[in-house]
Input
Amino acid sequence: MTRTPTRILTLFACAVLLLAGCSGGGDGADDGRITLRFQSLAWQDESVKANRELVREWNAGHPDVRVEYVQGSWDSVHDQLLTSFEGGEAPDIIHDASDDLADFAYGGYLADLTGLLPARLTSDIPERSWETVTFGDGVYGVPFLQEPRVLIANATLLKESGVRIPTPEHPWTWPEFRQVTKELSGDGTYGVAWPLKEPVSATLNLSLSTGGQLFHRGADGKVTVRFETGDQVVPRTVHDQVDTDHSASPTTLGSGGSDTLPGFFAGKYAMVPLGFSYRQQIEQQAPEGFDWQVLPAPAGADGLAQGVSPQTLSIAEDSPHKKEAAAFVDFLLQPDNMVRLALGDWMLPTGVQALKDPALHTDEHGWATGTALAEHLRSAPAQSVRGYAEWKDKVATPALQEYYSGAIGMDELRHRLEEDGNLVLARYQR
Output
């Protein structure tokens, strides 16, 4: 009988420890060792391998701070993170994309990294990249991987046509690009296939080259949508290629990027605008002897400027070990390690030192072309717009899909993006 109270107290203490372990991202083991949970969204085999190797290397050199690798998924990351934040079970280190951070940052779920990161890291990444993760007065992620949109071209068809081959130094203009796609069309081949199942980010980000901005922030800090001349160049080009020139395939407008590859390999399309990382799929899936090359996207009044939403690493506000989490982020993004991550994902690092690596400047697989575009990448127009997700899903996506298919004209597109869009955004800015 005299041992019963002691047993009850022991069980109670264990329960408290278990609850404490579940309430934060990381915890301390019985031996005093800290455990951090790192949720990675790496999905390609090379990328997963690189991430796991780096975690093992960290653990081997830091016996007092162990990192646990947690596999996440791009398909469900936003809802999954929201659930984990609200349930107090968020991972300590969070892999995401900058255009997904605004609501989490303003909602208080992410730690402000100001003062947590070493000067080496903050100075190595250009200010234009830090702008993608700055919300209000705080910095809520480290942008570390980025990719321009490029044209993946059938090199054989280009050579046979005799068209001028563009380079980052001498790209096609948007009118020239339209003319080239007409010249490449015929005999069962379209000059271009636009995979626009998700049309909003592609349209907005490419429109930076033509002076498009779409979202305008006033002196009161509120954002309004204005679909002006510069914003209309890219959608008008796509529409005219499909509807007027018949140089773009109408059937791929509702497709994802991967869906266009079989037709591209079969010679149905001479070019496909894709993210830079699609090169890995092309290299793996292209039939033997298929000759392809990487070309820069067309340039407009603002040159090769292009919006980008880099992949990011953030730290949960609820993590009890922010200092240790920041140290792991710094390790993961050392220049050599950043190169490993970039090569694994077939993307570009944001770090200036990493971008100098010779492996990123080879002509093979178009690495040199992509690296030459890095300096032209800018914060995507929608980065800091609260309510963007709803505006995109409920207003912009259906409106652009209908415009590209010919169901509505430019005036109706403008009306819906502006009038309907501003009603949505207003609810987030009261």
Observations:
- Residues 4-23 form the longest helix (20 residues).
